[in-house]
Structure formats: structure tokens, C-alpha cells
Design goal:
The complex is a heterodimer of chains A (113) and B (112).
Chain A (H helix, E strand, L loop, with lengths): L4 E3 L2 E4 L5 E6 L6 E7 L5 E8 L2 E4 L8 E4 L6 E5 L8 E8 L7 E2 L3 E5 L1
Parallel strand pairs in A: 2-11
Antiparallel strand pairs in A: 1-3, 3-8, 4-5, 4-9, 5-6, 7-8, 9-10, 9-11
Chain B lengths: L1 E4 L3 E5 L4 E9 L2 E9 L6 E6 L3 E5 L2 E6 L4 E6 L8 E9 L4 E6 L3 E6 L1
Parallel strand pairs in B: 2-11
Antiparallel strand pairs in B: 1-3, 3-8, 4-5, 4-9, 6-7, 7-8, 9-10, 9-11
The chains are: A mainly beta (113), B mainly beta (112).
């Protein structure tokens, strides 16, 4: 069974540009989460999808961040326009409707210069 | 709101036992999870405690005391590969949110 995959693994962009991150969850997992870890700090929740619906987006920092999960499969997270403070590692995780474990992807390291 | 506290760094030698503590404050407790993250890697689930007591999984054990809002992760027979960051995390039962709130992480360095 394939794990959670994320693309790209690294992205370096200039302030003001747009970046789109992609996450493919484990097949059959209805729950998909986005998290972010800024250098040296804790992993912070951004939002949670159940299938294609946004269940909880309380962690989204501002309206420069837009997440979608069309069709309830893969998800994208777009940052537009990017700011310096958006730099960090963006993790995607998925989980089934039972159990407590969340399966994390390898992350996308975003650097905004 | 929720907050968790854990030590920032712990150092131990190969073969030893190390305990990483976590205290939490949450309006509605729903269980304490532990995740391991190697540098540049993905957080990986280690354990989950919903009830008081000790859960053992191989060399790793996790303990929870709900009355004290406290838990710990115990790593035995330390190996070099255990060098990583360890995060405790909670979910909020009152709101039903499945999102994890993480502590700031404990960096474990295992020395030969």
C-alpha cells in the first residue's frame, strides 16, 4: 500500500509569486490534513478535509492560502502571493474514519526569498 | 485552547533508557499521541493513550495520567537510530476536531 505522497519535495520561490503544493493521501482515507512546521517551531494544523468538504480550516493563517480537494482524492494547497513568513515545511496527513493514527507525507520544504 | 509542554532536548547514551515528559492543557481531552520525526523526514505515529496507564510497543512505551494532565514516552535499549525529534499531540474532544495540536518537540540525541 502506497503511503502519503507530496509534490514537490522542495520549492524555492520569490516573494509575491504563487506556489501550489500537492498531496495524494492513502487510498480510501476520507480524512486529509495539512500542517506546517516553521523552522524550529512546533507542527501547526492548517486545515482538515473529510472527502471533498472542508471540515475545519481554523488553522489557515490568512486568505493567501487556498486549499482544495476536488473529488475527494488528492488535495492542493496554493499560496498566493507568497510572503517570507510562509517559508517552512508543509506536511500532509491522512487517516481513516477509525483509529487515531495520522499518516504523514514526507513534506514540501517551501523557501520564499 | 490547547497547549503542550515538553523538554526541548534530551541526550542519552546507546543502550540506556530515556523518558520524555509531556504536560498538556486542553478543554476537552481526547487522548495523547506520540510521533517521531527524523531530520528531513515525515512524522511517524508511535503510540496513543486514551486511558490511564502504560502502553507498551516493543522498545517504546507510553504512559498517561489524565488526572495530572501528564504523559511520557519511554524509550528503552536506545539505539543510534532513535536520534530524532519526538512530539506529543492531543485532539480536542469538546469540539470533535480531529486535528492534532502538537507540542514543540523534544530533540533526542543518542550518543555512542
Amino acid at each position: 500500500e502506497a503511503g502519503v505522497t507530496q509534490f514537490p519535495s522542495h520549492s524555492v520561490i520569490e516573494k509575491g509569486q504563487t506556489v501550489t503544493l500537492r498531496c495524494d493521501p492513502i487510498s480510501g482515507h476520507d480524512n486529509l490534513y495539512w500542517y506546517r512546521r516553521v523552522m524550529g517551531k512546533e507542527i501547526k494544523f492548517l486545515l482538515h478535509f473529510v472527502k471533498e468538504s472542508k471540515q475545519d480550516e481554523s488553522g489557515m493563517p490568512n486568505n493567501r492560502f487556498l486549499a482544495e480537494r476536488t473529488g475527494g482524492t488528492y488535495s492542493t494547497l496554493k499560496v498566493q502571493p507568497a510572503e517570507l513568513e510562509d517559508s517552512g515545511v508543509y506536511f500532509c496527513a491522512s487517516s481513516s474514519n477509525t483509529g487515531h493514527e495520522q499518516y504523514f507525507g514526507p513534506g514540501t520544504r517551501l523557501t520564499v526569498t | 485552547g490547547q497547549s503542550l509542554e515538553q523538554p526541548s532536548e534530551v541526550t542519552a547514551v546507546e543502550g540506556a533508557i530515556v523518558q520524555i515528559n509531556c504536560t498538556y492543557q486542553t478543554s476537552g481531552f481526547y487522548g495523547l499521541s506520540w510521533y517521531q520525526q527524523h531530520d528531513g523526514g515525515a512524522p511517524t505515529f508511535l503510540s496513543y493513550n486514551a486511558l490511564d496507564g502504560l502502553e507498551e510497543t516493543g522498545r517504546f512505551s507510553s504512559f498517561l495520567s489524565r488526572s495530572d494532565s501528564y504523559g511520557y514516552l519511554l524509550l528503552q535499549e536506545l539505539q543510534m537510530k532513535d536520534s530524532a525529534s519526538y512530539f506529543c499531540a492531543v485532539q480536542d474532544r469538546d469540539t470533535g476536531r480531529r486535528a492534532l495540536t502538537f507540542g514543540s518537540g523534544t530533540r533526542l540525541q543518542v550518543q555512542p
